[in-house]
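Notes, p. 3: input format for complexes.
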Amino acid sequence: MDNPEVIIDLKSVSFGYDGNQSQRPVLHALNFRVRRGDRVGLIGPNGSGKTTLFHLLMGLLQPTQGEIVVFGKKRQHEKDFREVREKIGLLFQDSDDQLFCPTVAEDVAFGPLNLGKSQEEALEITRQLLRSLALEEFENRLTYKLSGGEKRLISLATVLAMKPEVLVLDEPTTGLDEDTVERLIQILTSSNLTYVIASHNRDFLSKTTDIFYHLGGGKVERRPNISAIRQVC
Ligand SMILES: Nc1ncnc2c1ncn2[C@@H]1O[C@H](COP(=O)(O)OP(=O)(O)O)[C@@H](O)[C@H]1O
Ligand SMILES: [Mg+2]
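Output follows (233 residues plus adenosine-5'-diphosphate):
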C-alpha cells in the first residue's frame, strides 16, 4: 500500500499529572503517528513519559490539551475508548496491573469473555494461545505464584487473546531470559500486527522494529536508526 492508513494520531498532546500547567508537563505538544503495518520502537530515559503516552492512547489518562485520534475517530470520552481497547492490546509495564484472576486460564479467558465469547470458545482460545506460546503447562497455575518473567509471558497471552489489530508493549522484555526474548522476537516478527514497543533493550528493538522514536523533553522525535538515539538507558 502506498499510503497506509494512519491508525494512531496524537495531535499536539500535552499532559501533566498535577493538571497544573504552571509545572512542566510530562508531555508537551507532542505529535505521534502510527500507520497500519508500522513496527515502532520508542526509546526514552526513565521518567520521560513512555508509559504516560501509552496510557493516554488507551484512554486511561486524559490529555490536558490536544487530540487523540484512533482508527480515524477523535477519542475523548470513556465510551470512545471502548473500541480502542478492543483493537489495541496494551501490555502494561507492570504485569500485576494486567493479571488479576486466580489462575492463568481465567486471566487469558477474561478478554475473550468480555468480548462476548462463550465459556467454551474462550477456553478454546485460551488453550490454543497457551499452546502456541509453549505455555500449555501454565493453564491451571496460580497467577500470583508465577515468577516475574512468567507473569510477563502470561500478560502477553492475555493481550494476544483479544486478537488485537495493534500491540502496544511497555518494556516487554523485563524479567525475560534470553531464550524467552528470542521467542518473543519470533512471535512479533512472524505476526503481521502493527506494534509500538517501549524498551531499553536496543538489541530487542533493532530485531523487532524498524521505525524509531526518541521521547525526551515531552516530545517524540523520529530518528533514522537506533544508533542515532544516544543516551544511557
Ligand atoms: N501516577 C503518577 N502521579 C504523578 N506522577 C507520575 C505518575 N506516574 C508517572 N509520574 C511521573 O511522570 C513522569 C513520566 O513517567 P512515566 O510515563 O512512567 O515514564 P517512563 O515510562 O518513560 O519511565 C515521571 O516523572 C513520573 O515520575
Ligand atoms: Mg514506563
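The chain has a mean pLDDT of 93.
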